[in-house]
Design goal:
By secondary structure, the protein is α+β, with helices and mostly antiparallel strands. It is built from 17 helices and 39 strands.
Length: 760
Amino acid sequence: MATPAVQEMIRYAAARGEGTWKKTQGPAPNLTSRELFTYALALAEARTHPERLGSLFETAARMHDRDPESRGYGNFRWSWSHNQVMDFNAVEFCMMGGSLLWLRHRDWIPDDARRTLREILEFATEGCLRHRVRPAYTNIALMNAENLILLGEALGNSDVADEGYRRLDRFVMHTWEHGISEYGSPCYYGVDLDCLGLIERFCRRERGREQARALLELFWTDVALNFFPPSLRLAGPHSRDYNYLRGNGSVLDNHLWAVGWLPGKERGGLGLLWPALIRWRPPAHLLETSRSRFPRLVRQSWRERPCQSRTHYVMPDVTLGAAAANYHNMDLPLTVDLPGDSSFPRCYVIPDARGDPYGKKRIREGRGAHSKTLHLRPFWTAAQRKTDALGLVLYRDEDQTRTATTLESHFVVPRDVHGFWIGEERVAIERGKQAEFPIPDGNPLVLRKGTAAVGVRVVWARTVGGEPAGTALVDDANPDGVVRLTVTHHRGDAAPASVVGAGAALWVRVGSDLETDDAFDAWRRAFAKAAAEVRCSSSAIDLRAETTDGPLAIETAYPEPGEPKLLPEPARGVLELDGRDVGRPILERVEPVKSYLAYLAAAPPVSLEPGRDVTLEAESGHVVAPMTVAGDAAASGGKYVWCPGKIGDQRGGGGKILWNVSVATAGTYCVWGRVVAPTPDDDSFYVAVTDEQRGLLGQVEWHTGVHRQWTWVRLTDRSSRKPIAIPLPQGKVRLELRAREDGAKLDRLFLTPDADAKPQ
């Protein structure tokens, strides 16, 4: 498929913005601040209707919070109907367009409109600076970094640009260490590509462009490996999915269409403007890999904990994927994708306490600006080997369960397939007719579509009272083209006192290339006979299933679950293809990872000798952004290290200081730090010690207490206040001090094997 012309895309976006222009005439209650700036940029790029810009910017100014005492200072109301800032991401979406209006078109904008825009940008810059976003919040973290970079460079404010580049550094480092946190999101991957493409094209520093190109390559490789051409969608488990039934996201689809991966006419309305402005395009071999490399096993980590990982097995006619933990209450953690057009429903697991298995009922997200299809956040884990996945959901008391009169676990599947079986019996599904078919204990539900098959067995299920839970195939004659396997944990006139103890374990298997009835029947019967074992006591649950590729196992505490033990162990690669991490090496070519690895490989280690103390200058280690070296005459050598931040702001930190350490003799060491910690919101670090294989000291919080002048403080346990002694093995280790809160400053570290020693 040929890629569309850029100017055609821009003209299309500008024309689709006419609806925004009509809404400004009221203004209409549903007018959003973000569309004002996107539409203004579309007009500027199309060089049309400059007379409209003044009205657009004046309306935006009326939605701008300019009260310096307000938490939303510099931010925007999301919608005209809101009387205050409710979504603190609004400034980021607005400035995607605002920064480029000034950077690319300020001389074309009429004088009055230009003055209004300049004033808006100054206030909005402060809003972006105040918006400290953790790097695990992938799409907003990238947007925040992009906006600060482009606003700083457009307005000639190097300090703002510097901060944007520091935040981009932090994102690169986090992703290299832990993977893409908002994994597989059809909506947010599109936003990620928007932001990275704008950085790559418009930022002025080559380092930033190189980082953006590397991240674009990583995201597009991720998309390609998880893309399922027979259904034209990003398949596998998703975090934060807005379309439970079909798993497509218009924002990502805009990019897929713009690079020729999707057929059809223009799509996306105003949102097509962003792909039009991006010049980086994925190499052709990625699409070819997506279309031809079958089967492929894709595994990737997405956060720090071992179980924060996902697996996806892609075959020509079916895919199976499972996440080993939950990210959000809009996740689809276990999925099957079958051939069909983009409107064909997926198979997915969903926990449900509000009678909404298809994700149709929107509710308000806390006190925020938006209503979303928010579901439960139970304990979830899963283990997968290629064509088999074993998933476990255990329910916890939360807001929805305290008022809900139902609690169910669903496995939703498409209705329009070539047959359903419960055990050996074929089930007749009649379109438009409601029906419910009980599934006896241990019997599989199996569906067939073409050469593919999907089987699911409920190997364990409990009600809120601890009794075995009933399971049925339910057709509620919905218009969405799906039916569901439903495990009922509670159904009554009132909410249960507690849902702890309720849960279900589902074993899902997929079959591929089943060309004949005999092949399908043999596959179906083999799944029914495959061995599964469940041991559940008052303290633990242990699940095991035998597959042709080896055993699957889940073990965790019960009824209050803890960190699970899984077999096979979850992946910790950034993006693995058939056992090889192809993601992490992409980021190792760019800063700050490149320098970090060079330091690990070549920096002379600090030597710890028996009976000797060691004092380290903070700046002597390898400093990773956003931590940075700063000056103070009262600090040793006139320098210290910190994560910059306003005093008293309760903000996360980020960045770290790293030392290579050579330990001559194994032993325990006490740690002291010379710190300034001006407020309770600026008084903590993390400490970690690792060798090349594992963590030797799990990340420890170091709360120093408030010290407004340079003071030596000992590493102690926060609750007991007892000193923490770090056991160090003989050999080479890495000592890391990480910023937990910005504003906390470190001048020196003192390491001693003597528990009674104190630094001078």
